[in-house]
Predict the structure.
Amino acid sequence: MTSTTDTQTAGSDRGKDASSESRTYGNFINGTWVSRDELIDRYNPATGELVARFADGTAADVHRAVAAARKAFDTGPWSQTSGAERGELLYRIAERIEAQVERLAHIEVQETGKTIRVARGDLAGVVSHFKNAAGLAWQTTGESLENLGPTLTAVNVREPVGVTGLVIPWNFPALILAQKLPYALAAGCTAVVKPAETTSGTACEIARICEEAGLPAGVLNVVTGYGPTAGQALTEHHGVDYVSFTGSTASGRKVIEASKSNLKRLALELGGKAATVVFADADLDDAADAALFAITFNQGECCVSGTRLLIDDTVADEFLTELVRRAEKLIVGDPMDDATDVGALIHSQHLDQVLSFIKQGVDGGAKLLTGGERLTDGVHANGQFVAPTVFDHVDPNAAIFQQEIFGPVLSVTRFHNEDEAIALANDSIYGLANSVWTKNIDTAHRVSRALRSGTVWVNTTIDGSAQLPLGGYKQSGYGREGGKHGLEEFTNIKSIQTRIGKRRHAYPHTRGPVA
Ligand code: NAD
């Protein structure tokens, strides 16, 4: 059952402080908020309180949203606007988001369990992506080719790819939306967004901000709901030209299957198993801080989490003693407290999965140095909290070395030379990111080139800027997000070729007398 209501009731309880009562959202289709009777309840992962209710979108909702996006693309005006017009509107949206960063950050904390410090950083990233895409909208053009000889000229025009389906995961709901949406809009595409069923609040809020900033109806649509229903309907829809999907590698395979219906283009940002590779000549104080940050940032629920630490055996004991000392000082708890370092895991099934990996680590003979347990006392009583966990002497064949855990669980393996370090880092089906720690510039360059991942950080980790591309090698997926590469993903190249002057005939022998 759906019914159309106005923005104020169905879009969100906009005037309400995000920290008070629960928020209820409808779907945003063709510029109208459409409420549904069937709702998905979202409970705060840190407290167990009801914080939001999202429409349980169906295939019919997706169909209506795609039809709206199709019409907005095919008949304009969005796809016909100038880059400057699109850029100006994207910049206005960025400014409006910037004015609401604190409220949006609170919503992210309530729905994801991440800390307020991380949420604020995410929202700053959202603003940067909208501003960066605004600038790129002005600048992005095709190319002209004048060196094809005196009688042939050509332009390669860059056209928007069309109607896009943007599927978002729960770990960075606003940031990953912003890695896709403004670039799609900057290119002149229209979009149907399917946020994660657990964390749809900020996607709805950003849609409302886009609407208020003047984005025409139908250009952006949001259908909330579950992956196998709303997500599947979107990825297999014939009216969608392109799907940008971020999520697990298992879901990515289903998206590939669904895309076969009309051979739509895909970008897939999937799982990761990043290594932090620390050589003996590194600044070990910096490297210890980074190795800990890389596995505990966002509770380890990050596709580029440094989940494997590869450490030079000659400094390993000293390094790990210091790492564990620091890990035990981290504050795990109330995500809304500015002092908190590590928040709550997304939901109880995920908590069970992380605990099961920890058990596999212990059973497999790895040495547990710290953590390894769920926290249930005091502030942790009603939430899904796991102590930062470090395993030493992890066998490269072990599940905790090979599989994505998506929690604050670090696997440490020692190496004895550079070749062994590279081989261990590359011993993964994933290839999203890695980080290298050394003060030797030759080692830094050699190892960076040898690592098979879309990002390599040298003497830094989980770093970046809206200008830089993010994407995978191997089973971490394909396509790039962010920066000019991210915008170009949402375009097609058309080559328009023109002959100048009289044609040199292919079949001169067929020619009759000139009339
Ligand atoms: P998920 O694959 O379960 O869900 C991601 C999104 O896909 C959700 O919106 C979900 O509803 C939807 N979905 C699920 N099944 C679908 C289907 N059959 N068809 C269409 N849509 C479907 O992943 P998750 O648990 O939300 O997120 C965690 C995963 O995402 C991890 O594996 C992580 O590594 C990955 N991730 C990757 C990146 C990256 O940039 N590469 C970034 C963040 C997260």
Summary: The chain has two domains: 58-270+476-495, 275-458. The chain has 16 helices and 26 strands. Residues 167-171, 176, 194, 196-197, 226-228, 231-232, 235, 246-248, 251, 254-255, 269-272, 303, 404, 406, 432, 470, 472, 476-477 surround nicotinamide-adenine-dinucleotide (CB under 6 Å).
